[in-house]
Design goal:
Elements: H1 3-21, E1 51-53, E2 58-64, E3 68-70, E4 72-84, E5 95-102, H2 110-125, E6 131-137, E7 141-148, H3 151-162, H4 172-183, E8 192-199, H5 210-222, E9 226-232, H6 238-248, E10 249-255, H7 260-272, E11 274-284, E12 289-294, E13 300-302, E14 305-309, E15 313-314, E16 318-329, E17 336-347, E18 352-365, H8 368-373, H9 377-401, H10 404-419, H11 426-441, H12 445-463
Parallel strand pairs: 3-18, 5-6, 5-8, 8-9, 9-10
Antiparallel strand pairs: 1-2, 2-4, 4-16, 6-7, 11-14, 11-15, 11-17, 12-16, 13-14, 17-18
Helix pairs in contact: 2-3, 2-7, 4-5, 5-6, 9-10, 9-12, 10-11
Length: 469
């Protein structure tokens, strides 16, 4: 079989596979996604070297899906990972924090009791070198001003928490704006500032649209204030809370109210252990890159640069990104740069800005056999997992809407994608089967929504983000 016939046969097969999976039609002529194995093709065994950079709190490493890309229009993947080093000296970082508690009418009963108990424990764990503001909100907002947590102040804070009573609507933006007003004066004095938001419902007062609230979180992050968002109960908007945390550089959680004390404690430990804050990844796209998608998160494009805000990191934490690149290249003898990644952040221990940079390059060839024989086995697995996880996320959205048939179809798509790297993704397949069985046996709307929530948590982990509880 000559090369042209082979490529056309491959293209036809991939089109059929894409149709069966409900995926976008692949590019013409050849498989350029590096994900779906060809008939009779063995899994890649090549492991390309990582490109690594960074001598501060964070290291950045990455590599492309292969040493070669297909000449002409094609696609490739890049995997990038940021890792936070353990600090050279183990010490607790003083923090400037605001705890923002929903007291709307829907919090009545056990939820508010648990929130107050968790807040009391949070206050008890703060030290006299920390600043704390307390905010509770319904329709209006009530504030305990930011102050150092001395023993005298602690007693007054505990009394303030005891006095919280359920009332009113859900004014999330009012709570966040009040927290920011308390935090701002001390931002320059503290290396870590954070607002921790709790809500059990949809915003019904103040700013109510998702894009408005995520923009507010992004603005606070730009002012040096990270925002974490915790949802409790059955009625909150998971996408909103996750979006606030993602754009605010903080953490998100979908919780039962009984878990609040534990999560508040983890939030405080994460904040006081922060080694890098205001973390952002900038992806510079050379002219050969026509478009790029950071899978699983929102990126902001400015010309030939993509900005990806990331969360504050404590020692040992990490973030992995899978980037899908659409290319237009000419054959080359020498490697060409296809992605330049720069991680910028504030090094907390050194109290100064820092940066790590990697440039990823590959040769371009017209020979599809050379492309496929030089694929990296690890990047293929990450790419397949990311593509399958997109289907999982779509399934979670259909679960929330009550569209059982559509949700099961998306779960089936994910399983088929994972099956193309079954040896490496056996654990993912088993978890997916468990999710499908639990969803099929869910008898009521509340149980189905809980499965959607659990599935959304899994997608965040699968995409490589470790900012969720």
């Amino acid at each position: 079989m000559n090369r042209t016939t082979l490529l056309l046969a491959t293209a036809g097969l991939l089109a059929l596979v894409a149709l069966a999976l409900g995926l976008p039609k692949p590019p013409p002529v050849t498989d350029t996604t590096h994900t779906l194995a060809q008939p009779g093709e063995q899994e890649p065994t090549l492991t390309l070297p990582l490109v690594t950079s960074g001598d501060g709190a964070l290291t950045l490493e990455g590599k492309l899906s292969g040493a070669y890309v297909q000449a002409g229009p094609s696609e490739a993947f890049a995997v990038l990972e940021l890792k936070a080093r353990q600090p050279k000296t183990q010490h607790r970082v003083p923090v400037n924090v605001a705890l923002v508690i929903d007291r709307s009418g829907s919090m009545r009963g056990q939820k508010l009791d648990d929130a107050k108990r968790a807040a009391r424990e949070f206050v008890q764990r703060m030290t006299e070198v920390d600043r704390l503001a307390l905010v509770h909100y319904g329709t209006d907002v009530t504030t305990f001003p930011s102050t150092l947590v001395t023993e005298e102040a602690r007693a007054r804070m505990l009394a303030f928490v005891d006095g919280i009573e359920d009332e009113g609507s859900t004014n999330i933006s009012g709570g966040l704006e009040a927290a920011a007003q308390e935090l701002r004066p001390a931002v320059s004095q503290f290396r870590v500032s954070r607002a921790i938001l709790l809500s059990d419902g949809q915003p019904t007062a103040g700013l109510v649209r998702e894009e408005e609230l995520t923009r507010l979180a992004r603005q606070l992050r730009a002012q040096g204030i990270a925002v974490s968002a915790l949802g409790v109960g059955d009625d909150f908007n998971e996408n909103l809370m996750q979006g606030i945390a993602d754009q605010g550089g903080g953490f998100s959680g979908f919780l039962n109210s009984s878990q609040l004390a534990e999560v508040f404690t983890r939030e405080l430990e994460q904040a006081t252990g922060t080694v890098a804050r205001a973390v952002e990844l900038k992806l510079e796209l050379p002219s050969q890159v026509k478009s790029a998608e950071v899978m699983g998160t929102q990126a902001f494009r400015e010309g030939q640069t993509l900005r990806v805000p990331l969360y504050d990191m404590a020692g040992g934490q990490s973030a992995r990104l899978v980037v899908k690149l659409s290319l237009e290249t000419q054959p080359t003898e020498q490697p060409m740069e296809l992605l330049i990644a720069k991680a910028s952040y504030m090094d907390v221990e050194q109290d100064r800005p820092a940066e790590a940079r990697v440039a990823l390059a590959a040769r371009s060839t017209e020979d599809a056999v050379v492309v496929r024989s030089n694929l990296d086995k690890d990047v293929r697995v990450h790419a397949v997992r990311a593509l399958g996880t997109q289907q999982m996320r779509a399934a979670a959205e259909e679960m929330k809407k009550g569209n059982r048939s559509a949700a099961l179809n998306f779960l089936g798509n994910a399983r088929q994608l994972f099956g193309t790297s079954a040896a490496a993704l056996a654990g993912d397949i088993a978890e997916l089967d468990k999710t499908k069985a639990a969803y099929e046996s869910a008898q009521d709307e509340a149980a189905q929504r809980n499965e959607a929530r659990q599935l959304q948590k899994k997608t965040m982990k699968n995409f490589g983000y470790n900012n969720a509880y």
